[in-house]
Amino acid sequence: MGNINNSGPFSYKEIEPLTDKANGPLLVRKNDTKEFFVKKCYPLYLADNLTTLQQIKQTNLPKVQEVLIEGDQLYLYEEFIHGKTLTEVISSSEVIETETILKMTLSLLDALIALHDKGLVHRDVKPGNIMLTNDGMLKLIDFDAVRVFDGAKDTDTIQLGTVGFASPEQFGFAESDARSDLYSVGVVINICSVKEYPKNKLSSDPFLREIILKATRFDPKDRYQSAVEMKTVVREKWKQWVNETHHNEDRLVLDNRENKNEKTDMDEPNNVKTPIRSFLRKYVPGFRTDQPWKMTLAIIYYVLMLMGLPGMVYEATSMTEKLLRTIEGFTIFVLPVLLLTNFMNFHEKIPLLHSKKLILRGLGYGLLAVGWLIFFVLYLLVTNGGAKR
Length: 389
Hints:
Protein name: non-specific serine/threonine protein kinase
Keywords: ATP-binding, Kinase, Membrane, Nucleotide-binding, Transferase, Transmembrane, Transmembrane helix
Low-confidence stretches: 1-7, 149-159, 261-274
Organism: Candidatus Enterococcus palustris
Transmembrane segments: 295-314, 326-346, 358-382
Domain Protein kinase: 1-280
Largest sheet: 5 strands, antiparallel
């Protein structure tokens, strides 16, 4: 039955139930590391599948910490994900942009590629089982219906799945396989686009419609034959969207110039990503999340910095001193912001800064602060030493 740990239930402290369901998921904390996990109960026949799942390390799947047998019950301990389900996002959004849908689909397919490579079929891909974390990561969760593709059966032994999202074969027409999950992905895309099942209202979005149609064909032979194949098509559609959007932006800029003989930031519609807005969102801390309170704080900080830094430089009497004042101002005002606000997403390249453990992440930020302080002290020692000479 795989490598099941039978001796670990007392290493976790139960905090609170996460739903009102009997025997539903529980929030727990590991006693030694103080990390939070979700404890879920599964039927014993899923033991082999869950131990296989534990071996998969993929960013769009929750990390499985342990699979334990407690009495006659099977429990899975997986990472606790901070965020919202896609269901919540859809219900709270009037429109989800095409680009966002395509990017989410690519992440969802990456999760399925990892599962399918191990022979696992999720069988319950739906918005309620897709989490969007607070830092923008997509996670495919809940493995109550997971199974291994057999290939020698006419139908699934246990028919599971959510009506509307589950493929026809999950209700007795054939044995479900990887293409069954892709059917569900097609339905999810349509729900994100028009908030309806494809059979009720098919999305008219030119970048999504063909993907949805092919993914949700009744006969699995007419669908995408693998998540890799579907991902290739989705990525191509995303590239087409980017190219066409940029072309339209250029045309809008030209139209504005022709109509007003000049171009200002106020001429651009709010829903058009101008080059200036794109630059701010990509490179300028405080503007990359589009959150008003962060942008307000950033504007105040930058105004104060621009008021103080030029004054420091202006007071210097020689070019050498002006250069040193500029470096000093950059070190004091700019460098800490770049280090602590994940400039150009460099935190993802440093293990401590993207660790799931708060202690390690705090240590990472502490080392950054110490590194900045050491650099600043060395700079002062060097410049003061030079000045004395």
